[in-house]
Amino acid sequence: MDIATDVHAAWLPSEAFRPIGTRRVVVQGEGELVETVRREVEGATGVYGGGLVGTGTGYDVVFALAGAQPLVGEAAGVLAGYEGGALGGEGFLVGRVEGVTVVVAEGGAGLLYGLFHLVRLGESAFRGELAARAHVPALRSRMLDHWDNLTAHPVMGHVERGYAGGSIFWRDGEARRDLPRVRAYARLLAAVGINAVSVNNVNVQAAETRLLTERLADVAELADAFRPYGIRLHLSVNFASPVVLGDLETADPLDEGVRAWWAAAAGRVYAAIPDFGGFVVKADSEGQPGPFAYGRTHADGANMLAAALRPYGGQVHWRAFVYDHRQDWRDRTTDRARAAYDHFAPQDGEFAANVVLQVKHGPMDFQTREPVSPVIAAMPRTRLAVELQVTQEYTGQQRHVCYLGPMWREVLGFGPWGEGGKSVADLVADPTAGGGLVAVSNVGDDAYWTGHPLAQANLYAFGRLAWDPAADPVALLDEWIDLTFVPLLSRDAAPLRSTLHAVMDGSWRTYERYTAPLGVGFMVRPGHHYGPDVDGYEYTPWGTYHYADRDGVGVDRTRATGTGYTGQYPAAWAEVYEARETCPDELLLFFHHVPYGHVLGSGVTVIQHIYDTHFAGAEEAAEMRARWAELAGTGLVDASLYARVLERLDEQVRCAGEWRDQVNAYFWRKSGVPDAHGRLIP
Known about the structure:
Layout: H1 18-21, E1 24-28, H2 32-48, E2 51-53, E3 61-65, H3 73-79, E4 92-97, E5 100-105, H4 108-121, E6 130-135, E7 142-145, E8 148-153, E9 157-159, E10 170-171, E11 174-175, H5 179-191, E12 196-198, H6 206-209, H7 216-226, E13 232-236, H8 241-244, H9 256-272, E14 278-281, H10 298-309, E15 315-319, H11 339-344, E16 355-360, H12 375-378, E17 384-389, H13 405-413, H14 424-429, E18 434-440, H15 456-467, H16 473-484, H17 494-504, H18 507-514, E19 552-553, H19 571-578, H20 588-591, E20 594-595, H21 606-629, H22 639-671
Parallel strand pairs: 1-2, 1-3, 3-5, 7-12, 7-18, 12-13, 13-14, 14-15, 15-16, 16-17, 17-18
Antiparallel strand pairs: 4-5, 4-6, 8-9, 10-11, 19-20
Organism: Actinacidiphila epipremni
Keywords: Carbohydrate metabolism, Glycosidase, Hydrolase, Polysaccharide degradation, Xylan degradation
Family: Belongs to the glycosyl hydrolase 67 family.
């Protein structure tokens, strides 16, 4: 199989396969994914001198499907004691018996994931004895959404909110057909456990709408490239397709002609792509068409599409990102944060079983710091998926280092009902009600995949957290470092690892310090969302976000005097967020309008916190650049990668200074309160 070799190998460099490639390997079983395992083993052993052997004697590694006959003795020993079906199609067992390392799975996907698990373990997988251990993904669905356009948008380009070049799938209205690159991408995703991909923008325009019809062969070609790595392909669809494509006069979801149109469309898709995953839908949001035009509900619209997909086992991912984007900024009763709950919570229990409501992790829009969306706890009778954003729209756009694993781990570990209750991870992993995790991809056609080479760590961490939401983000960063920067056997990797941790471990909080304090959001330049503009969105129809005046700052979202948003949470958090005294400082301005002299838990005032954090964040960005520069000439990092990261860090330092100066100057002029330390504020 032709795999692209002219792009950065990311976390699958050839050297990472050395431990397997130097050994004699047995692969038992049949099927497309088992053949992928064989090809991977053949490639590794061909480079490093091991071999793919039969089931005789003298082998070091066994990959076996549980049903393969005859199962070699070591594999049978590892499998003994495990109940059939316990692993499912994606789980696997790993053990080491009498000097033989064994991976056993019940399905081909499990065997493939087991292979990549051994790659992560490296030489440690081939030492001593290892008791059999099961590895099963916590979440059934682990999905990436691409916001890729077939034709370049005049502002967004070929990838909306993409910061790594053009689409790897589409260009100038046509399929790129760079299938080696797509296969290389699928391989990277499978290595971190991702099993579903949507390949076009949720803002579906005219060209993308036709992927359901005359462009279906292009979609099938992509599905063929993803399939050998256990990844099901999905499409974002235009709710108005029956009108745009079918010459119908309506897209009313209760109209029988419309329902028949979608049923026929689904039939054509599954005839071309039998394992097609389903539709992703953004409806009645930011100008996209939807059921509201016909007096229908979101459940009406989603269930109509679900009925079309149900005979084939497909799903509808219906996005809950719905709000009034034509607000009057003078109206303080309208609160964008409330919108998703107000729209969807009353419809709990009305969605079909094959509808997954896709909810952004926060109530706004992937801000640097948000509370967890109350919708996640409000719909126990609806399948929910939590949506994250790997592409760094509001966290530096892959020009800044901002490792998001710690943020996502906080979201997944959050307990909406308080201590001892279920977590967000528990809800999305529930075998009947959970819809898994979805993230917006950060990949483009850049040679490093993500533009900023260190932004690859976010894609890696998303996949690994979707497999195991309890994983430690720092440990995942170690995994990524050890795979991506596999040292020469004679080199000490400790200095490189130390530098990368110094740059990346706290980078999310560093970014927060020099940008948006205490839960304030959207202080970015409108449109492209890069760089500071404190009032950029404050007087626009998109909403108001900080309400800064001469006396204070923040949005009153309390039940007592504000928009009532705090009342959307279960009691444990509703009471915490309602009172200034108990609201966490990092979210204070999201929930409360407070005087500049309000004293935080740290003992400093709000205005002094703004000054201090922006000075500190800019200094930390400069320290990150200085640490990276220490690698110059060491040979621990490829020269071109070193230069790319340094160039991005130069921009981060410049931009952090701009954030510091604009935000501090704004609030000094607004409040009239000087910096207690006498530092220069423009």
